[in-house]
Amino acid sequence: MQGLETFGVGIGVLAGLLLPIQTCLNSRLRESVGSPFLSSLISFIGGTVFLFIVTLCVNGSVLFPLSTFAQNPAWLWLGGLFGVIGLTTNIFIFPKIGGVQTAILPITGQIIMGLIIDTFGLFYSAQQTLNITRLLGILLVIAGVVGAVVLGQKRSHKNLPSDSSPSDGQDAGLWGWRALALGTGFLMAAQSAINGHLGVVLGSSAKSAFVSFTVGTIVLALIACVLKLKIRIRVPQGKTKNPWWMYFGGVLGALFVAGNALLVPVLGTGLTIMAALTGMITGSLMVDKFGLLQAPQRAVTLTQVLSLGVMVIGIALVRLT
Q1: N or C, which end of the chain is more exposed by having fewer CB within 10 Å?
Q2: Between 36-59 and 249-267, two packed helices, what is the crossing angle to 10 degrees?
Q3: CA distances from 109 to 86, 142, 185, 188, 321 (A)
């Protein structure tokens, strides 16, 4: 079992590596369509089509008995909705609280909610006892995230103004946005747990991810209709053409969601999330260091590398429990 968990953690880290690359692809797509909702919709459509093909190849069908709806709780179908809420909320909170807090608060929320889900066995997850070793591991992961996201950025931008404005401590309204950012992380953790159980119910993590992406696509399509958005793909000013790879963000997102659905029943929600976050931060540092996929190149600091090591130690402690 230990060997299976170690392999699962490795898969979780690899899945997390996909997310920063997906962000680069979706960001470039957003430049061409002019709307974050439309870029997300195109991304979700691509992911849904990809998962439809994968599910057909793996399971022979994307269908399941209608009795599944009556035999299971309503929250089982909310994973895709939670994913869209998390995605769109980040768009709105970024200009309110800045990039650093927009990154750190949802991540912290995911870790906290993952801990709650595992401790109390929510969403039919396997219940895991909270002991000192596990708690220490979780605190180390959070410390590593803070070091990589907050301290690392401060060191690489020491001459720039702080991400928080002088009125941060005076404007009580900002705490509402911060609470919303934390709540976004709660929803993303719940999405992982829900999709994991849905995969067990349907007997397929691919089918679970397909259902989640289908729900997300429908929600985004309704948002686009309400806002009367039309898909028009242009070549942004200063660019000569649109790269072919900008349409494949949904495929990477689909692989991530399917991977989570596969790993949650094996590792638990908390450990799955922490493995994915480690991969995500590793991937982000690689994107910054090498300027991958037209992303701006940024220096990677020693603080960020050491913080990544702290996260790995924290995950090892959680896994030992």
Answers
A1: N
A2: 60
A3: 11, 10, 4, 9, 22
- Is residue 207 very low, low, confident or very high in pLDDT (cuts 50, 70, 90)? very high
The candidate with the shortest Cα–Cα distance to 110, out of 82, 76, 78, 72, is 82
The confidence score (pLDDT) of residue 170 equals 42
| Cβ contacts of 50 within 8 Å, gap of 6 or more | 250, 251, 254
Tokens representing 306 are: 């050491």
Q: What confidence tens digit (pLDDT) does each residue in 106-122 have?
A: 888 888 899 899 999 99
DSSP output for 111-131: HHHHHHHHHHTGGGPPP----
Q: How far apart are CA 187 and CA 85, in angstroms?
A: 8
The reported pLDDT for the residue numbered 2 is 65
Task: With CA atoms as reference, report the closest residue to 211 among 48, 42, 15.
Answer: 48
Give strand ranges (E) for the chain: none
- Give the 3-state DSSP-derived string for 203-271, with helices as H, strands as E and coil as C: CCHHHHHHHHHHHHHHHHHHHHHHCCCCCCCCCCCCCCCCCHHHHCHHHHHHHHHHHHHHHHHHHCHHH
Q: pLDDT, tens digit, for every residue of 127-186?
A: 888 889 888 988 998 888 888 776 665 555 554 444 444 444 445 677 788 888 889 989
Give me the torsion for CA of 4, 309, 289, 234, rounded to 10°. Answer: 50
- 188: tokens are 């993303």
Task: Write out pLDDT tens, residues 210-236.
Answer: 999 999 999 999 999 999 999 899 998
Tokens of 275: 């493995």
